[in-house]
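Entry:
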Amino acid sequence: MSERVTQVPRKEKTRSVGTIPEYTGFLPDGISNGEMSVLTVDEFETIRLIDLEKQNQEQAAEKMGVARTTVTAIYERARYKLADSVVNGKRLLIEGGNFRCCAAACPKMKKGEDIMRIAVTYENGEIFQHFGKTEQFKLYDIEDGAIKSTQVVGTNGAGHGALAGFLKQAQADVLICGGIGGGAQMAMAESGIKLYGGNSGSADEAVNAFLSGALAQNENPTCDHHGHGEGHSCGDHGCH
């Protein structure tokens, strides 16, 4: 009997963007069919680079830090959504996507006054277990107790000390994560970011649990990998 091989989902590479749109969408002037099309920020970036700045796909791929074939696929999706919106009278929203922003773009990652933003250490749909090594955060914008929009942003290689500043710049109000060191916990408190550490499993499910008041706070989510042997765990889960 052959063994069943479990394939690990391939991690999707984040796309670097040079600007974050300061507007969230467009509405047809006249009769609208009431439907909506969502253009992600990385799709918006391909339109900006290729159609507005007249760069070819090789140049756009280099700027976005991905393969040319990836840019081609993103660009084709973006062009279809624009055409669908214009021809069929659909409202066009610009939000979400899997991207990391350049330093100049990050300050534009604004949110409305009535929006609460939750950041989750993120990898392949799960809560990444070592805060200081996280390469991505998934940001959830909450309005009236419900998820309004989400986006996955890269940390640009920021380490322990810089991540608190990254989250503050991203205007995060809440952080949900796995293991997190004592220094980072203090940095979250100083930045006014509410911490829910020591969590594992699905990022989306954790946010829904938070919204329903069912997400528990681990009183000791510290995860210091220096000086620990194999089998070290934080809370009820292993830290990686």
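The chain has a mean pLDDT of 80.
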